[in-house]
Amino acid sequence: QVHLQESGPRLVKPSETLSLTCTVSNGSINSYSWNWVRQTPGKGLEWIGYIYYSGSTNYNPSLMSRVSMSVDTSNNHFSLDVSSVTAGDTAVYFCARGSYFYPSGAYSPDGPAYYLFDYWGQGTLVTVSS
Amino acid sequence: DIQMTQSPSSLSASVGDRVTITCRASQSISDYVNWYQQKVGKAPKLLIYAASNLQSGVPSRFSGSGSGTHFTLSISGLQPEDFATYYCQQSYSTLWTFGQGTKVEIK
What we know:
The complex is a heterodimer of chains A (130) and B (107).
Chain A: E1 3-7, E2 11-12, E3 18-25, E4 33-40, E5 44-52, E6 57-59, E7 67-72, E8 77-82, E9 91-101, E10 114-120, E11 124-128
Parallel strand pairs in A: 2-11
Antiparallel strand pairs in A: 1-3, 3-8, 4-5, 4-9, 5-6, 7-8, 9-10, 9-11
Chain B: E1 4-7, E2 10-13, E3 18-25, E4 33-38, E5 45-49, E6 53-54, E7 62-67, E8 70-76, E9 85-90, E10 97-98, E11 102-106
Parallel strand pairs in B: 2-11
Antiparallel strand pairs in B: 1-3, 3-8, 4-5, 4-9, 5-6, 7-8, 9-10, 9-11
């Protein structure tokens, strides 16, 4: 069973950078994409972005100007930075593995590919406050 | 962005009931919908992917259906451990988005 665990500071000051790491165990970080999702009472679940094991990224346009992700395949972890944080960035942050389901059983350039989040970390509450 | 709207926002049901939750997409998304269950203080758990495929290890009382803009998650024979919040999520656009959640409470 793949296990994901978030780590990082729980309290960040406004205007500073929020930094989190997700460590993957019982599985390789290779061949998958690795996501960050956050949850607030007001906005619900919000996808932040993903990074492939190769290092390519895709970010939510609403956060793109402040978000950066990196991956360390040697140590099986990936990281999130959110710069210039405000109280609005206070949330529970989850890391999650992204996988594809191919109905045909394998990738096909002309076939459907369904993306899903199949493993999640337990989540960590990050509070932005002075 | 593709908006996902769930209804109802909450419902009360009894053990053994059949429960249906609806999710509507703001545009046609074929069958690119996943469903998750979240219990208080826990991470979401994948239940259904590609609208109707049951994730490994998930009880068969859970089922999903729909295509286009209208999707449903059904639970037949509600169990005590099913009281939780359920979310739909679209994977049609690479800007993944979630519904606002449906809380299933004990009547």
